[in-house]
Predict the 3D structure of the following.
Amino acid sequence: MSAMEPAQRSWVAARTADFVAKVRGGLIVSCQALAHEPLHGAAIMARMAIAAREGGAVGIRANSPADVAAIRQAVELPLIGLYKEELPGYPVYITPTLRHALAIAQAGADLIALDATLRPRPEALDGLIAAIHAQTGLPVLADIATVDDALVAIEAGADMVSTTMSGYTEGSPAQPGPDLALVAALVGRVQVPVLAEGRYHTPEQAAAALEAGATAVVVGGAITRPQEITRRFVARIRQAASSVAGS
């Protein structure tokens, strides 16, 4: 595990506990839109965060310094920040370096999320987490795809884990729905808070994650990406229309 000074460890632990107390048993809404998507823009994501808060969300997850800063000004909810950038030669793109993490911390995030899968990365995971702790005092959320990912991330100093990457790496199940089995396995193996994230499309799936022991559930596309929501409706309606036409 990465070494921290006692005072620093106490500060990070206190922030972790505060975050968990505020989000436990609730819904964290991921307000993200990439450059090619219709809702891209910090002002739009800030409005999306306000809508999520009004709907009862207990936290927000956001990408990029601009979006994090805008959302921080708009809502007081706990804010998970990340910074997506593809670097040549590396599959890891969620907060891949300390530079990205510091930018997110400066923008106002309460927690730094990063890809902690066992794939090639530009900076060693333990050193990166240690530097984030030392230079920001913020907890680190490890986005993982497998139990092994999680165990390595926790050994490297991660304060929480999230199932974000399940289905997106080799060795994790590519399936249309969430990886509830991974949530249950993590809850039974690790001593840090577990967030459930990744392909949660329905309230029933989110409830199942909480029943499996997740601290909270992160939902993104099913709430904040209207193009994805529309596609699901269209696919089902076309299926029904085809069935009616063939009867």
